[in-house]
Amino acid sequence: MEKSIIKIENLVKRYKELTAVDHFHLDLKEGEILGLLGPNGSGKTTIINCLLALLQFDEGTIDIFGQPMTPDSYDIKRNIGMVSQNVAVFEELTVYENIDYFCGLYVKNKEERKQLVQKAIEFVGLQDYVKFYPKKLSGGLLRRLNIACGIAHKPKLIILDEPTVAVDPQSRNSILQGILSLNKDGATIIYTSHYMEEVEQICSRIVIIDKGKNLAEGTKEELKMMIQTGETIRIEVVDLPEAQHEGIQHLEHVVSVDYQDSMLTIHCQRSNHNLVTILEYLNKNSIPYGRVLSELPTLNDVFLEMTGKQLRD
Ligand code: ADP
Ligand code: MG
After folding, report:
1. How many Cα atoms occupy the beta-carbon half-sphere of 280 within 13 Å?
2. What is the average pLDDT score of the chain?
3. Radius of gyration of the chain, Cα coordinates, nearest whole angstrom
4. Is the pLDDT score of 313 beyond 70?
5. What is the CATH T-level fold of the domain 4-224, as seen in this structure?
């Protein structure tokens, strides 16, 4: 059986009137990259802070590596790497000194630490900046420093709270690739985000939350099968007579049809033969067509169908 890394049951956290986390549960197994996906304000950071015993909660239990997590669980904490949503580094220390400081909280041996710090610097690609102070770094480089500080001590569990917010595309890609390679090297990962594309790209399992509650979980494929929304089909058609426009609208499982600039866009309900049905219809009516594209529903569609809201506003 896979080893349990985190087990959260019935977690409740209230800020006065507001229930920020509402009977949340989570079961994280060794080797996973788990995406915690939810809109801004859905409780992701609050869950992470409870998990790390940085915040007291009202109800529930949290076990990490099979043991209850408490503020003085030092043995648990040394095996966790935390990359916080807000960059948390020392302005008066250089890049090298910052990473060395955070690594030194858990690794006392100087020789061992030197190697770990060096590895972390290479890992995030900050070799050319080791003597820089944080205020001289661009937003993307600062984020990379924040990551290096969180992971240098080679933790078994790495928690990244929205590490790519306000990051340029190049740094974003390097961060995502970095997470995959940390996982390959054996780390179990929790990754929170409100960007569905990133979560789809790297996570082996996704937990969708809203208002501090579990909404749905599974692989991205499983989540997309839970909803009625199906694929969006785009077909290049140079001329579409009104009668056929309407005809397509009336085909089974077709939700809406839009025709503009020689592009026919058809939203479907989930069903096995949508594309075939539509192409057969065009053939039968002797309507020539060019490129055909079919896109699966997105995780935003999943969220939208389950809550009536967009993941991002
Ligand atoms: P997320 O990380 O998903 O954006 P948060 O966990 O930061 O969400 O916030 C969840 C909810 O709790 C939000 O409504 C937020 O306004 C509220 N909240 C967060 N921190 C505090 C706090 N210290 N005091 C009061 N309310 C808070
Ligand atoms: Mg947050």
Report:
1. 7
2. 94
3. 24
4. no
5. Rossmann fold (3.40.50)
CB 202 within 8 A of CB 180: yes
Question: Could you give phi then psi for residue 169, rounded to 5 degrees?
Answer: -55, -35
Q: What is the CATH number of domain 231-296?
A: 3.30.70.100
Q: State phi, psi for 246 to the nearest 5 degrees.
A: -70, -40
- Quote the ligand 1 centre to 46 CA distance (angstroms): 6
Query: Residues with Cβ < 8 Å from 268, sequence gap 6 or more?
Result: 230, 231, 232, 233, 253, 254, 255, 274
Q: Is the CB of 125 under 6 A from ligand 1?
A: no
Tens digit of each residue's pLDDT (9 = 90 or more) over 132-152: 999 999 988 999 999 999 999
Q: Which atom of ligand 1 is nearest to the CA of 85?
A: 2
Q: What is the dihedral of CA 301, 306, 310, 312, to 10 degrees?
A: -90
Segment 179-223, tens digit of pLDDT = 999 999 999 999 999 999 999 999 999 999 999 999 999 999 999
Note whether 31 and 183 are within 8 A (CB). yes
**Predicted confidence band at 169 (pLDDT cuts at 50, 70, 90)?**
confident
Q: Does the structure show a pLDDT above 80 at 312? A: no
Taking only the tens place, the pLDDT of each residue in 57-79 is 999 999 999 999 999 999 999 99
Token look-up 């229930």 returns 19
> Are 156 and 190 within 8 A, CB to CB?
no
Tell me how far CA of residue 20 lies from CA of 69, 148, 194, 214, in angstroms. Answer: 20, 30, 16, 12
Spacing, Cα 52 to ligand 1 middle (Å): 16
Domain ranges of the chain: 4-224, 231-296
Cα(187)–Cα(153) distance, integer angstroms = 12
The answer to whether residues 146 and 163 touch, using CB atoms and an 8 Å cutoff, is yes
Residues with C-beta atoms within 5 A of ion ligand 2: 44-45, 85
Per the listing, tokens 């890049």 go with 95
